[in-house]
Design brief:
The chain has about 240 residues and is an all-alpha fold. About 70% of the residues lie in helices and about 0% in strands. Helix 3 runs parallel beside helix 7, helix 7 packs antiparallel against helix 8 and helix 7 packs parallel to helix 9.
């Protein structure tokens, strides 16, 4: 399966602005050649496909930023990158994603400009899913302070709330209070506050929120949704709710 298969159809906003500039004309032209004939899409399909492509292109650029944050490229990080794309888009997609990211690693780019483009063009649920993947990428070989600092900066730049970014971090940096932090509350919360927090987070992170990005990205979104459910169940067992 070639690149035109897993980033197929109509190109979205990411081909313009800093993200398109980073990926380069050659990469964009490859997609364009592979996706000629996309005029058969209706307007809604074109919009959804453009959003999906933009999500994936943004993911590639910001993956490179996270991978080089600690000054080294590890095999664990590249394996995580490959497995995400291969698991959702096919084996060859994993290899091509790694190839593209290795090219981006050699480029310098303005993180604020990239994140501003993401913030302006992605809805909040899509940004949450993008950030969840980035934290999982940084955590796959152990988070060091430079990676934490970068990820916190990205969260701020793309407009995530502190409670939402902390909730995502809690999934990958477990401690005695991580179940509470995943739900965005403290151990001092009442039983009713625990239930309310769970309902709120379940709605916010439901995989259907990113349905327009395609079934594969929606499938990846289930990881955070599952973590929320597990955290709530653990708290309920602990409290006897």
């Amino acid at each position: 399966m070639g690149i035109g298969k897993w980033i197929a159809g109509v190109l979205g906003w990411a081909m313009f602005g800093p993200i398109g500039g980073i990926l380069g004309y050659y990469f964009v032209s490859r997609i364009e050649k592979a996706t000629e004939g996309a005029s058969g899409y209706d307007e809604d399909q074109r919009y959804n496909q453009g959003q999906r492509n933009s999500f994936l292109m943004s993911l590639l650029v910001l993956s490179a930023a996270v991978i080089k944050a600690d000054g080294k490229v590890t095999s664990q990080e590249m394996a995580r990158l490959r497995s995400f794309f291969a698991g959702n888009f096919g084996a060859q997609a994993g290899d091509e994603a790694e190839k593209i990211v290795r090219e981006i690693l050699n480029k310098e780019f303005n993180l604020y400009e990239v994140c501003t483009q993401v913030r302006q063009c992605m809805d909040y649920s899509q940004r949450l899913q993008l950030y969840h993947y980035l934290v999982s990428l940084g955590a796959c070989d152990g988070l060091v302070q430079r990676e934490v600092d970068l990820l916190e900066t990205i969260a701020n730049y793309i407009g995530l709330s502190k409670s939402d970014s902390d909730s995502i971090f809690a999934q990958f940096r477990p401690d005695n209070d991580s179940n509470y932090r995943i739900l965005g509350i403290t151990p001092e919360a009442t039983d009713e506050e625990v239930k309310k927090a769970y309902r709120k987070m379940a709605v916010k992170y439901h995989p259907d929120k990113v349905a327009t990005l395609g079934a594969d990205v929606q499938k990846a979104a289930e990881e955070k949704f599952k973590a929320i459910s597990q955290a709530y169940e653990a708290i309920c067992r602990e409290r006897g709710i």
